[in-house]
What does this fold into?
Amino acid sequence: ETLANQIAAGEVVERPASVIKELVENAIDAESTKIKVEIEEAGLLKIIVTDNGNGIPSEDVERAFERHATSKIYTTDELFRIRTLGFRGEALPSIASVSELTIETAEDKKTGKHLYLKGGEIIENTSAQSRRGTIIKVEQLFYNTPARLKHIRSLRTEVSHITNYMNRFALSNPDISFEFINDGNQIMKTVGNGDIRQAIASVYGVNIARKMRKIETENFDFKVSGYTSLPEVTRANNTYITLIVNGRYIHNYSLNRAVIDGYSSTLMIGRHPIAVMNIEMDPLLLDVNVHPTKQQIRISNEKELGQLIKEAIYKQMHQEIR
Ligand code: ADP
Ligand code: MG
It folds into this structure.
């Protein structure tokens, strides 16, 4: 069982950033309105994710560390309809199997639970008087999988991966207040009042937020709304393009391309904007189960969607230039 979890961990928990991604997704799924992420030494020494969500019922906490013990028992097709981010029930057991993990979790006005696991084995199991929500502390990540540890090149690269995830989470969930602390320094904090532009200001700065323009367009299949930076604000790569489909941050090459093309067909060939695009569509048009991390998705009529986005951005940029 431990071995199976470590093997699964190879897929789900590639690096500290993937641990943070899974833990934050769980916090979002638990309907948290505040999520704090603290890391030390790029997450290799310590990761703490604190949320104010629903908590795990005391009697279910142990089971959450068994494989495929998801409480979100939906088919993958339903995934984008139901809007929970997790569904495989692999993350907690995988993370626990390659670290020392402490969890404190409580439902509202109930006695909570405290568990401490090492390499996936439960060492401590007590009840805990906690507030509503969940705190998960992951220490000594990959201590028992030296190969994985060796794979990690530099702490700086790891921190930038984590920062990217945190930024994307903040931009795709403007109604949640996120806080990100790296080695004791507050890197980012959003208000969580539902305003995307506010989230953009917290992530990229107030000056950038002022130089973003609203994009809105739709057709029969798709509804797109978001922000793109003015031509004077460009970036050298696509790290600053955030695509959100039905509330989920995704990777999609051709849609990224559409954003860049709409933007750069005006003046700045090959330049990348800062952009946040919210795309809503019928979940039936989606296939998410392409990769365990759930970020690569296929969309039917992807070309049509790309065209729609490209034209809307092109139009908006043209108005600005005139
Ligand atoms: P999945 O998210 O795919 O269901 P995970 O291994 O990530 O699987 O989590 C297992 C279960 O533990 C979840 O289904 C959920 O019930 C519970 N859980 C995990 N993290 C939290 C959290 N922060 N708040 C509430 N419940 C949680
Ligand atoms: Mg999960």
